[in-house]
Queue: 4 jobs
Job 1
Amino acid sequence: MKHRQEPPGNKNIIGSRVVAIRKSKGIKQREFLARLQTLGLDISQTSLSRLEGQYRLVQDYEVVMIARALEVSVGYLLGEE
């Protein structure tokens, strides 16, 4: 596994939570991508990596799909819970 060498970006607030939840559930990035695609969100591995590193803006519909794929609430992803 390649570790991120740069500090997180500032393009979104959910990236670090996505990584933490995904890892706590033992979900690899490839599996997570498959879950997202099953839900109808077509995202590349590069885009997901940039999202998780907070280097990419996240659309509102993506937040909803990501929350569904991780089985958490949107509020939790946004740090409200």
Job 2
Amino acid sequence: MATRSHVDEALWDEFHRVVNMTSRELGDWLRVRSAGTESEELPDQAGTKTGQHVLEILGKRRTDLTEDDERVMRKVVEKVHAERRDDLEPTAGQENWRHRLMTIGHDPLKGAG
């Protein structure tokens, strides 16, 4: 896909607000979630496809994002907003809910990024 010259600033800002885990935290989490009792995925293949894509986006400048990156960013923002209050204040919830959000870079126990 061709590189876009820009991604909407509002989307960029909101994505970085809802994705409140650092790239290191997300990468570590994806590896932990993918580790099994008998085996472990390769570090660069650990986690969900969306989680891996979020990790890639966190390592890019806004000017280097593709249309596919923008699609994933919108998907992540919509998912977090659908599952959380708008203020994104730290919230305890069921463990599986928290872990599901963490696979896309949002830890409900942390404040907004």
Job 3
Amino acid sequence: MISSTDGAVTAAPLRTGFRWLQLVMGIVCMAMIANLQYGWTLFVDPIDAAHHWGRAAIQLAFTIFVVTETWLVPIEAWFVDKYGPRIVIMFGGVMIALSWVLNSYADTLTLLYAAAVVGGMGAGAVYGTCVGNALKWFPDRRGLAAGATAAGFGAGAALTIVPIATMIATSGYQHAFLTFGIGQGLVVFVLAFFIQPPRLSIPPKKKQLNLPQTKIDFTPPQVLRSPIFWVMYLVFVMVASGGLMTAAQIGPIAHDYKIANTPVTLAGFQMAALTFAISLDRIFDGFGRPFFGWVSDTIGREHTMFIAFGTAAVMLLTLSAYGQNPMVFVLATAVYFGVFGEIYSLFPATCGDTFGSKFATTNNGMLYTAKGTASLLVPLASVISATYGWKAVFVVAVALNATAALMALFVIKPLRRSFILGKEAESASAATGSAKTETA
């Protein structure tokens, strides 16, 4: 790092190998915050057994976490643009550790909810910063870079699901919260010292007809005034709501289906259906994010969205009809999360393509708040399931995903292309008019 004359710290130099190192460190940081969302389902029933607060009340903490995580990202992104990623990620590391320490001592819902706010602030600081940094380092491979970074969040819990479940069973959920919370926070805090943004703006290598990218860097206020942003926001909410509900409720769903502890043998491995499902979900989710990001770099963002959202609808329909079969439950949820997680690579990449790199962290942060909006439906899923059963919840999610798939091709694609070409034409016209005025 190099200090400027005003005392500010400049960004890292542009080196090809260095940007891959930055990507890897961002992925590791994301893996360290993954359990705050994807490991949560393991704690719901043990917390309820200890305090008898009820699933709906406990799951409200999950909603508070996601809302805080997402809706504060634009503010945290502003700090990144002003002070750099290091201090924001350090802050995130401290907060995620504090969150799970508080969870380990929570003996009231108030304290549980307070811990969710603290954890949301920490996770959002890490998530928004790492994804935004990846978009800046890889404008030529936005889908792959955003997908690989998001994969850390999607698959980061895969290696720790079994240890956490084991620790909960042997030592209690409080001990699991305390041990993993401190460990995860410490890793993030240390890596924060080495994460830097690029010094120079890196242009895409070539223009692709199926991958329209703007040449203009739109400011956040300009983005908020663009109709295409709100269409993307709506589709994000539609898809994210089903995935967040399934991630948060997969434990209760398995218990209600009476298959949670049913042994399932697959590829030579045997585990209880719930543990097997969660482990495979994290692996498929982690693989799907960079894979679909890479696919979208090749065939276009909207075509990839159509494939992923359509597949998600089919898997949710399968769970609705045959989810009480342990093998179907494990495989269908795995495939579902394999295509669900791509929203966290496709939407950041699409946002960068549409609105430019300069303000990518803040602009993507604003779009990412759609996840928080979607999380408001998670407690509602518990209410619907209590009245009509989980099939009703799955049917609603199927409709949302199918609609989103159609909107990707027939609404987002033409609107986004029109927006990019129209704004570039306006910019070129303004530049020509300015040149003529100066000549005159």
Job 4
Amino acid sequence: MKKILVSTALLAGVLSYAGGFRVSLQGVKQLAMAHTSAHAEDASVAFFNPAGMSFIPSKLSIVAGGFGASNKVTFQNLNTLQSTQTDNPMGTPLYAAITYKPIEKLSVGFSFSTPFGSTIEWPNDWEGKEMVQKLELKSFYFQPMVSYKFNDWLAFGASYIYARGQVNWDKAITQFGGQINIKDEKASGHGFGFGFYFRPDPKLDISIAYRSAVDMKAKHGTATFDFPSASIYPLLGLDAAKRTDGFTATLPLVEEYTVGLTYKITPKWLVSADFNYHGWERYSQLTLDFATAPIGNQADPTISVSPKNFRNSKTFRLGTQYAFTNMIYGRLGAYYDESPYTDDHFIPETPSFNTFVVTGGVGFKLKQFGVDVAGGYAMPQSRDVSNATLGFYGQAKATAFYLGLGLSYNPF
């Protein structure tokens, strides 16, 4: 069987609109403060920086939470003035983490998260149907980790990443009047993360972290074809009864660098800031290589190559928290997220926008228990689409909002 190389940007949703397909929803408390990372109050810090576990005041900490994310994308052809809108289902990212200090200087933990994924669904007969009709991605990160605290102000932590993923992608094959579905439910990959966490002053926390790229490998994928006439299948080297072609895949997920800090202006009021750098350059093109189906655009007709030309991107975040009482906390934030590609490389599989996001939330502490709620409203900037490679021109707009509920338990 020939090999198929499919970049994950092909296989992802648009939950976060700006930074490609990275879903920045790994902590409800963090989202309320613009998804900033230098907060070592409970186990939610584990995903952002494993070294932060060493500064959690509780010996044992458990957190879990989830989000509802709604998004819509609208594309208008400026020549025909025809407008098309997605009908995306509600996204539901989840996270959970646990940390424990077996001895004073050593902390261990485990983080579960869904940092890439969601679904985009265009009408079956829209003008971009040959690129995408529906695209669904589910990714799951499992991260065991350890942290060592060298002294009162410095800790180092590292994590191993095991990733699992599922993809389900539909698009039209108009020359035969049919469709293709690309599906794999057992993709997997490996990576790592590490970080330093500093507290040089009781008022100041500094977090420096790196999360590696993960190459997801799909070894049991199936491409299923649907044509109006059974006579078409033999022309493509397919069995008309099975209608399938196998494939393997390597799906790259990008690396991320983060620098964050939190400063306590007063005992009740703190401010946080983050800078994220995302290594999107590794997604330069999309290559599909089917086992037998000759539906490509290369000398070998089973191979289809599409340039993507992603570039590295940045995110700037600023958040704040104020303690109204020992039990009630108010939070606000805002961030700006760059799209990893220009207007002339816009793709409807992963429509991405330069985006401003405002966030807010409330936290409640009841002895060892904590309850956090948060929300975010995204304001993606419209794009003048001019992708000559795809022959795709027009204007794209989007809207999105997020709601989250998180729970924490620090028993001792």
